[in-house]
Specification:
With 138 residues, the chain is α/β, with parallel strands linked by helices. It is built from 3 helices and 7 strands, in the order βαβαββββαβ. The mean pLDDT is 85.
Length: 138
Amino acid sequence: MGIYDAYLGHAHNNLQDFAETIKYLVSIWLNCYKVKTQLAIRINTKASYGYRSADIKKKIKQYILAQLPNDKLSFYIYVKQDSGRIFHARFLETDSRIFRCEPGFDFYDGNSFRQTSITIDNSARNLITKIRALREAR
């Protein structure tokens, strides 16, 4: 499972909502597929507001990944350097589908959902390939 969100880990006040949403999505996934799963999170350094790549990874590990069942998941965090400005939309990628999630992955606070549009967008496969190919930020 891959999560692509240019701004994940950069917000100051809604990391808990990101964590709750990802925890919710992972729980659905693990209920359907009872096998060890890889969770790859890709974010954009352009949106980092002065944070270093290591700081962003630390925040994601501390506030988001620490709340997930690590016996059932292996985690990967990629901070990409996007000088071509291609990385903005938010996606959830599985083996067979790509879902566009707007306005982002902070739509669940543990109790209620905020209005969000989640649509199947397999046409984004080329964009996902370009995002994966971006250089890793330092």
